[in-house]
Design goal:
There is one protein chain. The protein has eight helices and no strands. It is mainly α. The two termini are 37 Å apart. 15% of the residues are buried.
Length: 188
């Protein structure tokens, strides 16, 4: 088993890609807010695919290094989890449509793999039911607050949080932004 650390240039490149993906994810959340009604479909799709593509770049960069370091193709394919890969070019699949039907309370579609479709339909129903409860998952709230707070701090626009977020989320995001310190430039 290889116990060497990730090479520093690769580590920095991966960190940069993850940071970019996080900002794309924050944009996905931002475009779900009510003040974005005119553009949410286009922008949430763009930013979600940008985040996915950026993380794919990170995975492929790491895979290229592993290949360069002599990893077998079989091991690499296992690490890349190619069996669960789904092409966006194919558009939504039966289980995606079933998930949306469950979220919206519509009847489950009848086509496709019956077990997979039923599973995703009921998953969507549970998500819809959970969304009706006023108490939200604390982990989800913290994640969203961190993303919104980080973006507001990076854009130096903390006051805008109150204009588009629900009050509880805006307060949490403001606390996150206030706690962040902008890094000082490195001196050589």
């Amino acid at each position: 088993m290889d116990s060497t650390s990730m090479p520093e240039p690769l580590r920095r490149a991966v960190h940069q890609l993850v940071s970019e993906a996080v900002l794309h994810c924050q944009d996905v959340l931002r475009y779900t807010e009510p003040d974005q009604a005119h553009t949410w479909k286009r922008m949430t799709t763009y930013r979600a695919t940008d985040a996915a593509d950026t993380m794919d770049m990170a995975a492929q960069l790491i895979a290229a290094y592993c290949q360069h370091a002599g990893m077998s193709q079989d091991t690499l394919q296992t690490y890349l989890q190619t069996g669960q890969q789904q092409s966006r070019a194919d558009g939504p699949h039966d289980d995606d449509r079933a998930h949306v039907a469950g979220l919206l309370g519509n009847p489950a579609p009848q086509e496709g793999d019956a077990a997979g479709v039923r599973s995703m339909y009921w998953h969507g129903r549970r998500q819809a039911e959970n969304a009706q409860r006023p108490e939200d998952d604390p982990q989800k709230l913290l994640t969203e607050a961190c993303l919104h707070g980080l973006n507001a701090k990076l854009c130096d626009d903390v006051d805008s949080l109150d204009s588009y977020l629900p009050p509880q989320m805006a307060a949490m995001a403001r606390k996150v932004a206030d706690a962040l310190q902008m890094p000082e430039p490195a001196t050589v």
